[in-house]
Design a protein that fits this description.
Two copies of one chain form a homodimer. Chain A is α/β, with parallel strands linked by helices. In chain A, 37% of the residues lie in helices and 21% in strands. Chain A contains nine helices and 14 strands. The longest helix of chain A has 25 residues. At the A-B interface, α4 and β5 of A face α4 and β5 of B.
Amino acid sequence: MKKTLNLIKIGGNIIDNETKLNQFLQEFSRIPGPKILIHGGGKTATEISGNLGLETTMVNGLRITDAETLRVVTMVYGGLINKNIVAKLQAEDCNAIGLTGADANLIPAAKRAAGKLDFGYAGDIIPGVIRGEKIAFFLENGFVPVFAPLTHDKAGSLLNTNADTIASALAIALSEQYETKLIYCFEKNGVLSDLENEESIIEELTMEKYRALKHEGTIVKGMLPKLDNAFKALLAGVNFVVICHAEAIGNMLVQDKKTGTELVNN
Amino acid sequence: MKKTLNLIKIGGNIIDNETKLNQFLQEFSRIPGPKILIHGGGKTATEISGNLGLETTMVNGLRITDAETLRVVTMVYGGLINKNIVAKLQAEDCNAIGLTGADANLIPAAKRAAGKLDFGYAGDIIPGVIRGEKIAFFLENGFVPVFAPLTHDKAGSLLNTNADTIASALAIALSEQYETKLIYCFEKNGVLSDLENEESIIEELTMEKYRALKHEGTIVKGMLPKLDNAFKALLAGVNFVVICHAEAIGNMLVQDKKTGTELVNN
């Protein structure tokens, strides 16, 4: 029987709130067995860009990453956020090691070709290119990888890559070695049928239902790319995909209670 | 017989010059066998601090690290410089992995107690606390560790630690497992008897001679803590300690030519 691996993506709004982040990291450190944390960027990169006199341009939730902005996200994602999370987890006796896709060439990517829009130094993960056994090596030796949302082009340049996408790609790559659970954590209780009502959690979501809810406008904006990444993982063989509140992580993975929105096959 | 391990510290002035840095990293990537790179901070942290409206205070070459400055050095050392070096080395097929002392708890340190001066979040490595076998694990599995000059207090906080000190402490910790060569690279040809003359290299330096040259004022300023760290390593059993020009690294370690200033026992 395969071991269970938990891959947990933690979103920006939690990262921006130190109290919530600390609470989440304490819960995360108690999850037994092999686990991976993938963190998003939060608002710090935008703040620091502003302080450095750079303008931030977002298109459909994606940051246009020119050379100067790449420097900022490298500093903030790969340094400030990543290494602080590592230090906090180490204080909880969780053997964290902070990584980007450049480290040990774990996540090679391709710079997105400029079309109508030029996203600059944005990296798209090449399907099938992540070697699960390289990451399993860290897990099997007792490390807890903490990934920043950065990849590289294997030609000397770092690239900015969406954390939801990294989480999905890592889960797919590791689904051969492990029974994989992919958990997208954020500041809401799950996918909601009414954005104003935190109790309106859709407990199970099939691809068919997702298409319908997207069509009727119930699921919108930032949730769409997240769900696209989440369904991609499910369809590629990841065993369990859920979208839930960051505060629910302990309930779900330590106490084994059902929470949030689970994605299910039709 | 023990394997040879090369530990190479690369100083700030090389890091600030992209052409020189690229050239150095190409040479570094060709060095055979296990190796570790330790990089300094360069001027970027000071520049970015300035751009963010922070004042930089240096005392005897050490940065006073208040909470805001710690954020900047974490970004710049742990993110910008470290991850760019990793990406550049990966482009040269050198299997770099970027690390701080917090990652995998590799370098625990103690926050320096405030005396007459409060250095803030400055970390002093506790003697004997680095476990060489933890770092040897990375080396024996084909990784090339690239260390940023950051440690942590194992209580959740990162700390700013001098890169020369980290290099010396790592070399000492690994001298049980390996025949260790510690090489301090910078923008000069070695320890000079006349600072104005790059040819005035002191080829061999004993502790006795060092004391005399310090006393007469021939060796001054930034070279003093570097030599103190270097002699500390030599006295603790590191097999070979040299101070040389960054450009000489290939000559010395690939082509086995003598270069720079070698520290020798009396």
